[in-house]
Queue: 2 jobs
Job 1
Amino acid sequence: MSEIKIAIFPGSFDPITIGHEDIINRGTELFDKVIVAIGVNSSKKYMHSLDERLEMLRKTFKDNNKVEVDTYKGLTVEYCKDKKANFLLRGLRTTGDFEFEQSIATMNAKLVPEVETIFLMSNPQHSAVSSTIVRDIIRNNGNASQFLPQNIR
Ligand code: ADP
């Protein structure tokens, strides 16, 4: 594994929200590099195409040179190994997130013990923000811009 501290922040980012952006920016204070990686799941339906989601990520982090943007297929822990990343970064909003994340982190630790999952608590102002609700607002012609990163509003 690599000497520099690389963290993967995986997700679908359909679309990226201010909640994700905050966790990723805070992650770059802890790690040398944060790779924001869109997991490609061909059986899932998305509102935004992969190219659109990549473009939104690139624009959001254009001024943060510690952030890299990428896509991957397959198991997240295998992708971590490919990228020589020892850390998986996740955000926690609620106890619901905690319960979901706990089982994934436990299973991932069994699969690849050298990858440590690190959790950052959501900023309380962002704890109700989710991509799902942002999509609902967009679908119903509402204005979701306050939930989106400044660079893509
Ligand atoms: P996906 O993009 O696959 O739908 P999620 O958005 O559910 O994935 O989650 C990606 C990561 O971002 C998770 O760790 C999740 O807890 C975190 N996250 C999502 N929204 C927020 C938020 N508003 N504040 C903090 N963390 C968040």
Note: The beta strands are 6-11, 33-39, 67-72, 87-92, 116-121.
Job 2
Amino acid sequence: MPVPEQAGLPAVPPLPAGLPKGHLREIVLYPDPILRSIALPAKGIAADELAQLAADMLITMYHAGGRGLAAPQIGIARRVFVMDGFWKEGAPAPRIIIDPVLTPLGDEIGDMVEGCLSIPDHPVSVARPTRITLRHLDLDGPMQVIDLDGIEARIAQHEADHLDGRLILDFQESSNA
Ligand code: NI
């Protein structure tokens, strides 16, 4: 079945080579308690299961018009997220991130307004390190170490937060105004 496309979004990019066909999954919405759970490591999940999960997450993210999606957002409390910082600009760069460990690189902090597919129409300005080192497993197993900046550093931190039950709501300044 072809994936229907939303008006105003670029075409859904092809999935990375080697992934199975992805299926659309339902995105869990706040305040579903799974969004507050601490996800378990993904290590140990069978490789074919993990590849299917990644394919489903990428398709679901693209279809929803997002740049990142974490497994708890489709109801799976495992430490997996997918991201693509550039597909909306016509330069797809999908990443599949398994059991990530993030470390700030340098001490620069930047503010950016973030949205979340699980909290529709509720953008929040969030201060985060602008550069990070990201260590993670990929589908082939070996540990990867990459440095990210810009939108990719932003997305990776947002999605990694999901794996610890942290949401952009937690960054809102309390205000009665
Ligand atoms: Ni989110």
Note: The first strand starts at residue 68 and ends at 70.
